[in-house]
Amino acid sequence: MKVTGGPLVRAHALRPHGRLLRQSGLSVLALVAPVSAVLYWLTIPTDSWRPVLIGQIILFAICLLAAIAYFRTVIWVDRDGVTERGFLGRVTSYDKSEIGTIVLLDLYESGALDTHPQLFVTGLDGRLLLRMRGQFYSRGAMETIVEQLDAPIVRVAEPMTLQDLNRSRPELLYWFERRFTSHTD
């Protein structure tokens, strides 16, 4: 694994769904607008509205930074390997020679019957190199990874729960997903 300061030029740039930023922005607005209106209504008569304004400016700055991070998130892939710039700006690159297998499966959403595709790129030693979640990336973007990397692929036919995946392949999950998923039947 190489952690670099800047992205390499790749043939395909895969970005998260655009609707995620829109939905997140609307959710924040739906929460902040009524609360702000009430706070201004309570503080303007007493001339103590300035802290409310400062809080709104700080929240706006955080939202702006999150939007910038979202727009900078990208996965570049070509026949030589894959490079990911994550949400927090970390850039990791993996050469095709470092890639062991690609696992493609459908994972049930928590408490629902809906599934989302998940793609896992593992190293020769079995450790997780890259994960693409269906909540963020399209199935077409995942298929682009499969086509470009041309690595051995494991397609799991039946959808799995997070608990099933934790039992069979815990190394594919993030630490917090392994921690909060029970190992008992």
Automatic annotation (TrEMBL):
Keywords: Membrane, Transmembrane, Transmembrane helix. It comes from Cryobacterium zhongshanensis. This is PH domain-containing protein. The chain crosses the membrane at residues 20-41, 53-71.
